[in-house]
Amino acid sequence: MKNKSSVIKILKRVRPYSGYLVLTIISAVISVSLTLYIPVLVGQAIDNIVDKGQVNFEAIAYILIVICAGLVGVTSFQWIMNYFTNVISLRTVRDLRRDVFYKLNKVPLSYIDTHPHGDLISRVINDVDAVGDGLTQLFLQLFSGIVTILGTLVFMLAIDWRIALIVVVLTPLSLFVAAFIGKLTHNRFIRQQSLQGDISSFVEEYVGNQRLVKAFAYENNSFEDFERLNTELYTTGFKAQFAGALANPCTRFVNAMVYAAVGIFGALSVISSSALTIGGLSCFLTYANQYTKPFNEITGVLTQIQTALAAAGRVFEVLEAENEIECENTKTVSQCKGNIKIENVSFSYSPDKPLIKNFSLDVKSGSHIAIVGPTGCGKTTFINLLMRFYDTDSGTISLDGVNIKDMTRDELRSHFGMVLQDSWLFKGTIMENLRYGNENASDDEIVAAAKSAYAHSFIRRMPNGYNTVISEGGGNLSQGQKQLLCIARAMLTNPSVLILDEATSSIDTLTERRVQKAFAKMMEGKTSFVVAHRLSTIKESDVILVMKDGNIVEQGSHEQLLAQNGFYSTLYNSQFDKNS
Prior knowledge:
Blueprint: H1 2-14, H2 18-47, E1 49-51, E2 54-55, H3 57-104, H4 109-113, H5 117-159, H6 161-170, H7 172-208, H8 210-215, H9 219-245, H10 247-272, H11 278-300, H12 302-319, E3 340-347, E4 356-363, E5 368-372, H13 379-386, E6 394-399, E7 402-403, H14 409-413, E8 416-419, E9 428-429, H15 430-434, H16 443-452, H17 456-460, E10 469-470, H18 479-493, E11 497-501, H19 509-522, E12 527-531, E13 543-548, E14 551-556, H20 558-564, H21 567-574
Parallel strand pairs: 5-12, 5-13, 8-11, 11-12
Antiparallel strand pairs: 1-2, 3-4, 3-6, 6-7, 9-10, 13-14
């Protein structure tokens, strides 16, 4: 049933190109019709060779000219059929890959977080390609095959219905054999595609973290892990391909028996009756071979079609995932002041592990809020909820009195600027990377933001300045330089609310002090949230929230919290205690 469902979904994707489909079918009909007409001509030529010295050369010459013209027609229309088939397949693949990539931008962040990234990449590239290859083979064999079967059946019935009946009765045996083998091998092809996704995830993970692999001398271990996956893929793939490859020889064996039966009964018919001539028998044998040929060809590409069906299932799993939910009657905040109110918010990534419980907070416009606490206490989760990367399980978060669930995510995030601990840059010029957060920013505004983030000096020293192309992920920059660019990019957006999640963790102390001054200038009159482990950097904050186990256990200014001699005091003193 799953195979049938995948086929129906793929055919729906082909529907926009039904015009090309019609042209493909017409080309197939003409090509096959000419192919089937040629055996008739050959049979007529044979019948014009009656005996020694009784050869009608004039008739044979004319027949040969017609055969040559027919072959030219067959070749031409086969090329046209192949061309339109490839157009349908490639455009369907283009649309499918575009829709999958678009879908990945629409699914909740939780979907991306819970699926290996390499596996998702494999679905976008490898699986969609496999669907395209299967489509090409299916259409090429399907259209010509159906026309060939119907055409040869008509011709055979016209020549001798009794022998034609033998062919029709015996040939379906090859289909039963192919269907039986296909059913046995389908799960192996699904496992093969899944393992390809696992290997893609593994390679993507290790290539992206080669510095750590080499730092811990983990090369041999990583190779062993890869070899285990690779061997499993080889074993599974070999079994799937071997079992699938049995279909074609088995069907050819059945069809060879059909051909032999036609030869025997046809020869007896020629001997016992004058109704069937030798030329007619020759023609009939050719048709019997033509009739069984589509069955052989389809089983010959059965493994490819099975792979395509398995791949299609994985692709449609992504396409059918639920999108992020947006409310219908959306509200907007025209001039955001940055008042944020959080009331009785609870959240957990998994139902059996509650993280944030009954969390409440009232942040006034222009307040500078620092969030501190041990690892896993919920600091970054709080930011995820604020930006609606995840939605709360219960409770409400409001921006200027508007529930953020009543706003579109784009509207909400347009009021926020964010700098994360993990810097992200794409392959392109420095200018393009900085303009990522504000496409309408002028060159002068970009330079001003870079100067404020203390990135201008190192950019100017680059080979082509702001037009220097950086590699994917900023691989040709230091970690500190990448973070400075991300800070400049956030400054360029001029947001109403600023979120800094360990934004200066990769910057040297001197530059950090300068950037902190730049942040202070940028945060004037704006609400800001700063997640920090180095407590010395957030002493000037208006309010410091101390989180533990998903709750705010303390809050106040730096001096107030130290005076309480509570959990914050313990955290702060531990960073300066030489014996800790």
